[in-house]
């Protein structure tokens, strides 16, 4: 009987053969992480991502938003003061309440044309009640705050006008500068009218009683725009001279004073533009005048000037806007003294009734 000799067993090893399939530790890791994530989710555990941050507004947006905030404040103050005065009554209520309501309406228009409240696109935070909004504490007793007064409205108007005027002077965008100049002018003229009608003292404003015109052209002013204003100012002077010749008493004296003022402005602007006495000097001996009474003609020439200065506010640069804004206010103010109504956007007739 023959015996078989078994072949020796090959030693086992934990190492894979050279031609075997390699391991995939990355796949295992990813799979494990996915499973772990599902487990955590099933247990109600999640990893939060940080909430989106609000984008930072640029310089132009900050200027615009500040003007909107001021307009909202003026509107709310005027509206509350009007309601309070209407409830109280009084001798001046019939005259002051409609003016306060007009100021509130103008402020609403300002907010709309300025673009409204800044929206970052993020959800708004829940509003928190303001315990100081309507209540005041005195000697441990909680009482309602008094309603805004006409004086409060005047403070709000003049403060807003001064800040918006400064923003108009410093604005980099010409279109925004023109709009801010118009809003500021509307606010200060409304304040002047409210002070006159109510008898309440007008707080100090940034607008001089008489604009200062120099023989230096504002930076950025186009020669054609300056020439147009030279002609408009000279035509206004001529119109007032004709009005004086047809009038007497106070109207005559006033017309003569305004004629001299407009002729002087025309001369200074002509020198600033470098066209005084030149072939391109647009001034003429006589001008065609609109039909109508003295007041109607005066309103038309002053409103035409206001439009010209508002347009220039959008083209000149920086501090060069200061005298332009003064002239815009002076022209619009003169128009109102001749009977033109207050408007929300002086010098911007395209926004009338907006």
From TrEMBL:
Region of interest called Disordered, as start-end residue ranges on this chain: 1-26
What InterPro entries does the annotation carry? DUF4439, Ferritin-like, Ferritin-like_SF
Q: Which SUPFAM superfamilies match?
A: Ferritin-like
* Domain DUF4439: start-end pairs: 228-350
> What is the name attached to this protein's record?
Uncharacterized protein DUF4439
- Organism field: Sediminihabitans luteus
